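Box 3.1 A note on notation
Throughout this textbook, protein chains are presented in two layers. The first layer is the amino acid sequence; the second is a token string describing backbone geometry. Keep the layers aligned when reading.
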Amino acid sequence: MQTVPHVLRPLAYRAFARAVGANLEETELALDEYASFGEFFARRLRDGARAIDPGRHSIISPCDGVVAAGGIVEQGTMVQAKGRNYPLAELLASDALAAKLEGGAYVTIYLSPRDYHRVHAPCAGRIQAYGYVPGALWPVNPKVVARRDGVFSRNERVVIELNCPELGDVALVMVGAAGVGNIVLHGRGAQELSSAALRRVGERHRMELDVPVARGDELGAFRLGSTVILVFGRDRARLGLSEGQVVSFGEAIGQIRGGDT
């Protein structure tokens, strides 16, 4: 990862932020402390920049972005874009996990270069596993997704398996893309995983875990923009979202079914 000369960092990052509309008031560090564009893209938020929705039964957005698609898993398929569907089992690289989530609600969130690029737990529970799936690095912007079949199920991705009380099994998929040189996963006490290192091996990799996670805890980070897909089990989650809706990490995007606020 190429280092940006110290004196040029504020100028370079401000120019980028102006070009894409990124909010520099939320950055954790001073701009000259980000040694590379990769570090800047994966910047953390300053304390107090976001609040976690306090509702006991709220499901929070795991990231910033725009809702690209959503609905219910029907006969094992999900909507990629209008007129283009793809199999959940291919996305998850697991027939067994896909069967558990058949009939459940899902949402696809596109992260553009302007967005905060870290990904967080949408619910409290336990991380069960991280699974790396090698693949292509096609762009995932809406124009490409609308005209190319199987982008999410063919691109490099990481499947994070969660189990949350009242929600049961939950899958959170971080999809890599062109310009995303690395997905970093934080094992919360376990070994950290990097997609760049796993890509060199070129094989699937699975890490079994049993690690507690609080709602809003950080799970991983992207370099540049990409996509997060969140899938729940049947009759577990009620998501109140519409295509094109802008969402922010920490805000409520739905409710646990049967739970009040």
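The radius of gyration is 18 Å. Residues 1-49 form one domain.
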